[in-house]
Design goal:
Elements lengths: L14 H36 L15 H10 L11 H19 L16 E3 L2 E3 L9 H22 L3 H35 L9 H8 L5 H4 L3 H13 L24 H26 L12 H26 L5 H32 L3 H36 L1
Antiparallel strand pairs: 1-2
Length: 405
């Protein structure tokens, strides 16, 4: 089921097909590792430029090998395990934070020519295949499932350390990740809805390749969904990644490093690499869902090469936005973080999804589009007003209870 929608498996599965899959898996793993190293260097360089500093400039040209030097150094560090730790879970937790990112990256279309109507498929050694490791028929659901599994790695890391401070940090991190998972999922549903309307018959698609194909060449979900789901997904993704201004899990002013306080050596490096790998993977997901993925104009030459180029340029733009946000936006308080997730993003994403559904139903039934949007907007505004009043009443009741106590 995982690989079944790839045209590579439409005929006889022989040795050549197996070798192609092995090569694609090796290339995907290599791209992930190299992209993670370059992302660390990229972030350090951009932040240093924004802060009028030099940044890494010793190891390799422009300091591009600094990450490799740091990795070799941390491998030689002593690997400590606390006496009261659950040793098996303590060793397993870092892997649970990195493996979901690798699996998710394998579902992303990295290239291909989507302008000729063949869905970005290319011919390789006499076989037709997609330039992605896997294209499951429920690819979007697999992506959401992998992002949920990453929460277990964080929670188990803090619990298995046998210390109170990592446990408190893991609880705080898990609450943050779970809170923003709902808004992230609702914005993805908006993408699936409009991608379905663009496909034949309007039946919809959950495959990443189908979502990219529905956006080719310029029908990006960025503006088809009305920009709001893109903004919600970007904010929720930043919170999911524990990046500034939502890096309350391991804030610099605290004396401990949250759920990874007791980790050292190579296991600490895995957490560090997983953070940046998740950043690259989430950027690739944003490019796939909202910016058309590899889809773009073919100016000359083979189209699949231009697919790689457009995907790379879009991904660099998203990653630069992540780094720019980190360097310029101050950290929020934890109560502000939770209020933004539960009181703003989730109601807004749900309301916008219902608005898109109303427009879709109205289009199918022949309703007046302006009347549909106007009535939907009035209903959304009324519901939001009721939500605000309910929150005010709840806050007033809590204040009265505090006075009585």
């Amino acid at each position: 089921m995982i690989l079944g929608l790839d045209p590579l498996f439409s005929g006889h599965v022989g040795l050549v097909v197996v070798l192609i899959v092995v090569v694609k898996a090796a290339l995907t793993l290599g791209i992930c590792l190299v992209a993670t190293m370059l992302m660390i260097w990229f972030e350090r360089k951009i932040v240093s430029d924004l802060q009028n500093r030099i940044g890494p400039n010793r190891a390799g040209p422009w300091g591009i090998l600094q990450t490799l030097a740091d990795g070799l150094k941390v491998i030689l560090k002593e690997d400590l395990i606390p006496d009261k730790a659950d040793r098996l879970v303590f060793r397993l937790a870092p892997i649970l934070t990195m493996v979901p990112a690798f699996i998710t990256f394998g579902l992303i279309p990295l290239g291909g020519d989507f302008s000729n109507g063949n869905g970005g498929a290319v011919t390789m050694f006499g076989h037709t295949t997609f330039l992605q490791l896997a294209n499951p028929d429920a690819g979007v659901l697999v992506i959401l499932a992998m992002s949920s599994i990453a929460v277990y790695g964080v929670m188990l890391a803090g619990w298995s350390s046998g210390s109170k401070y990592p446990l408190l940090g893991s609880v705080r991190a898990s609450a943050q990740m779970v809170s923003y998972e709902a808004a992230l999922g609702l914005s993805v549903l908006a993408v699936v809805l409009v991608s379905g309307s663009a496909t034949k018959g309007g039946l919809g698609t959950l495959t990443t390749n189908g979502i990219v194909n529905a956006q080719a060449p310029w029908g990006w979900n960025l503006w088809v969904t009305g920009l709001i789901p893109f903004m919600i997904f970007s904010v929720a993704a930043t919170a999911e990644l524990n990046r500034p201004p939502f890096d309350l899990v391991e804030a610099e002013q605290e004396l401990v490093g949250s759920f990874q306080t007791e980790y050292s050596g190579f296991r600490f490096a895995i957490f560090y690499l997983a953070e940046f790998l998740n950043c690259v993977t989430m950027g690739a997901i944003i490019v796939t869902l909202f910016l058309g993925g590899p889809a773009g104009p073919v100016l000359f030459g083979p189209g699949w090469i231009w697919g790689f180029l457009w995907f790379f340029l879009k991904l660099v733009a998203i990653l630069y936005a992540f780094v720019w946000t980190r360097a310029s936006v101050p950290r929020v308080r934890y109560d502000q973080l939770m209020d933004l997730g539960w009181k703003v993003l989730i109601p807004l994403s749900l309301g916008w999804l219902l608005l898109l559904v109303a427009i879709r139903v109205g289009s199918d039934l022949g309703w007046n589009p302006f009347a549909t949007i106007a009535v939907s907007a009035v209903v959304m505004a009324s519901c939001y007003g009721l939500l605000v009043q309910a929150m005010k009443v709840s806050r007033r009741n809590r204040e009265l209870e505090g006075v009585i106590d």
